[in-house]
Write a structure and sequence with these properties.
Number of strands: 9
Strand order of the largest sheet: 5-9-8-6-7
Radius of gyration: 22 Å
Helix content: 25-40%
Shape: elongated
Strand content: 15-25%
Order of helices and strands: HEEHHHEEHEHEHEHEHEH
Structural class: alpha/beta
Number of helices: 10
Length: 269
C-alpha cells in the first residue's frame, strides 16, 4: 500500500506525509514531488517476504501511532499554512524506549523508478505491474478498481448487521473463522468461531474442510457439500486475504469477508 499511495501522490502532484510505527519505534517523512524525491528514493525495494513485519504479528505500543499521527498532523498544518519548513528533505525517527527523536537528512535518488532521470513507472498500471513482480499484489487484483466489489473477486462482503441477521439470528449453519493471532483471540472473539491465524491458513486447510463439511449423510467431498464460511479479523483487512485464499487457491464457493471486522461488530451489533 505504501508504494501505491506514494506513486498516486507523485503522479497527482500531491504531498505525501508518510508515517510508520512498529513496536517501540516510529518514523515520519514528507515527500513533495520533484522537490524532495519520493518514498521510493528512500526505500527502492520492499524487504523479502520473510522479513516483512506488521502490527498483527509484531505489535505496536498504543501511544506510538498517536505520537506519529500527531507529527503527521503538524506537518500537514505546515504545508497548508506555508509558515514553517516541513520535513520534505528529512526522515525523523522516534525511539519510544527513551523518547528520543533523530532527524536524518535524505536526498532524491537519480535512479528512482518513479521520480528519477529515466523513470520506468509513469502511471498506476506500471505500479500494478511492479507490485505484482515484487509479489505485493495478487494477480487477480487491481489498484485502479474497487478490490472488494471487483468482478474478479470470488468471495462476498457482508456487514456486521447483515451477518447477525442472515446467519446468527436465522440460525444458518456456517463456519466462522477468526484469522487473528491467538493472543488477540484471548482478549475477545465472536461466539462459535474457530481460530486459524492468517499466516497458518494454507497449512490448516484440512481443518477448514473438516469444520466446513455439511452434517448431512452424504459427505462426498464435493465443494458444494461445504457450508458457508465467514472470515473475520480486527478491522476487516486480513479477512480479505483469507477469503481470497479460500476461494482462489482452494476452491471454496461460499465465502464471506466480514466488513470492518470486530471493530464494526462492536460498534453496530
Amino acid at each position: 500500500a505504501r508504494y501505491l499511495i506514494n506513486d498516486s501522490c507523485y503522479l497527482m502532484k500531491k504531498p505525501l506525509i508518510s508515517g510508520a510505527a512498529q513496536g517501540m519505534e516510529g518514523q515520519i517523512s514528507v515527500y513533495v514531488g520533484d522537490e524532495s524525491g519520493c518514498y521510493r528514493c528512500s526505500f527502492p525495494k520492499p524487504p523479502p517476504q520473510s522479513q516483512r513485519m506488521n502490527c498483527t504479528d509484531d505489535g505496536v505500543l498504543g501511544p506510538l501511532p498517536a505520537i506519529i499521527g500527531g507529527l503527521q498532523a503538524l506537518e500537514a498544518i505546515k504545508i497548508c499554512s506555508s509558515t514553517f519548513e516541513s520535513l520534505k528533505d528529512h526522515l525523523v525517527q522516534f525511539d519510544g524506549t527513551d523518547s528520543s527523536l533523530v532527524r536524518l537528512r535524505r536526498s532524491k535518488r537519480s535512479t528512482c523508478e518513479l521520480c528519477g532521470i529515466n523513470p520506468s513507472i509513469k502511471n498506476l498500471n506500471d505500479t500494478e505491474n511492479w507490485l505484482r513482480h515484487n509479489h505485493l499484489l495478487h494477480q487477480s487484483l487491481s489498484c485502479t478498481t474497487n478490490l472488494i466489489n471487483s468482478p474478479q473477486q470470488l468471495f462476498k462482503e457482508i456487514s456486521s448487521v447483515e451477518y447477525h441477521t442472515k446467519f446468527v439470528q436465522a440460525k444458518i449453519d456456517h463456519l466462522l473463522i477468526d484469522v487473528r493471532e491467538a493472543v488477540q483471540v484471548e482478549i475477545c472473539s465472536l461466539k462459535g468461531s474457530i481460530n486459524l491465524p492468517l499466516k497458518h491458513l494454507r497449512k490448516k486447510i484440512v481443518t477448514v474442510r473438516e469444520h466446513a463439511l455439511q452434517t448431512h449423510a452424504d459427505r462426498s467431498q464435493q465443494w458444494n457439500d461445504f457450508k458457508p464460511i465467514v472470515v473475520y479479523c480486527r478491522r476487516g483487512i486480513d479477512s480479505i486475504s483469507a477469503a481470497s485464499i479460500l476461494t482462489e487457491e482452494f476452491g471454496f464457493s461460499s465465502v464471506y469477508h466480514l466488513r470492518g471486522g470486530l471493530t464494526e461488530w462492536a460498534r453496530l451489533v
